[in-house]
Amino acid sequence: MNKRFTLAVLFAGTLGAGLFSACKKESEAGGTTTTTTTTGTAISDEDSLKYLMYNTMQVSYVDGGRSTTTNLPTYYWYSNVPTLNPLSSTYANADSLLSVMKGYAVGTGSTVLDRYSFLDRTGSLSSSLQDGVSGSLKKVAATSGDYGMEVSYVYADASKSTTYLYVLYADKNSPAGLAGVQRGDRITAINGDTNISYDGASGSNTTKVNNALFNSTSVTLKVLKAGTTATTASYSLATTTYNINPVLFDTTFTINGAKVGYFVFYTFTNTYTSKGVASNTKTILDALFAKYKAAGITNLIVDLRYNGGGSVTTAEYLDSAIAPASAAGKTMYYYLYNDKLTANLDKVGLDASVNFPSSTGGLALDNVFFIVSGNTASASEMTLNNLKPYMNVKLVGETTYGKPCGFITFTLSDYDSTGKEKYLADLYAINFATENANHVGGYFTGINPDASAVDYINVPWGNLSNDDNLVAISNYLTTGSYTSSGGRLSLGNTGGMLKVSKTPLSTKSFNGMVDFRIGKKLK
Question: How many CB atoms lie under 10 A from the CB of residue 156?
Fold first, then answer.
């Protein structure tokens, strides 16, 4: 890479003719680097970011987005976007420019398809997904980690006049998980404040709760413990980094005389770290599938109801572990790129498809069931879609999020006249889509379940009697029908159980899939 920030920009009819070169540091006060052009015009870090982002998406990724002699745009919908002036004051920052660009990615009926592209200005997302260490290795600012839990509001009555705040889950290795916070705990006070009811996405209460749980370094919680009406507990938590454990719960059921594996998987952290060594995620999954193989399971339930995706490599791992022997060596999925990248696959080192390994995981499954919801996205959807051509795949729950496309991470950086790098942001703009071996993809509106089921927040993991999703699957394995003569829980037998709200608390959880291997090839 040319480590001197040299911009040679020509946007005919938009910028007129502008030549930006020999970038020089003028000031580092307050963490802001200002650069100057040969005409004496100051170029801020934010303008540098706007330019590099636009060029990487629309012109070429080569030389960190600086090349004007190669025609290799990376944005999947680049041809929909007209020529824009990324340095225009119309765009207050790179995020506002990106928002405008996303608006041009439209499909049938003028539906905007790109709900996904974003900038990560801390660099922590790449580290969390690839290395499996939460909140670690931020490229700017100090590392503080997180509490390792997700929460949601639920309506306590049919009129929706009363809301409660519940814990959806806590990572076993996180501060919350290690302290004993668990799924179904109802949070009744935060830092001694009991006024925490939901008052709209931008309401003062919601903002206060969001900041306390996701933008602080310490918090005190009072909770009503899961499954009780009177047992309370208090937790004082401090953020930290920790090794992510993507498996929240696992067990083996016996249903209708047969062994059935079940595990809850909440994120696709990579199976190999950025250094190429097996990750904690791989170790956990290796042990899990070895246990299921030894138990002789004939059906598997993968609970992805809160899984927004992550690493493509981990999706491939799961598909290889679950698929029948007949899939070995065959196409797992196809990549779809924009026309410029597609025409230069060999030149830039991109793959057109990925195959199953020469031998799969050794399970002989009659069915694989996926529990899904509107929070099930991207790598989660890809995992189940890849298996459909080769085995019986059943979906239970709600329609999935709808994200048949993914990211290649591009790190955007500035360089001073000495070659010293200043990190600006990681760009996550849609670069590819995928289709399974039958060329099925394009599920931008989500994938519908085979059977609808309700997510009851105050039902613990693995409860075959009260988890509506597991009740449906158990019925199917017993009778061949998802419903029983006595009726399903969602049809009325719901005393005291609370449905997850359609308007959950906005959190920092990630929806997407990232192929880190491609990012390395395109550097």
Answer: 14
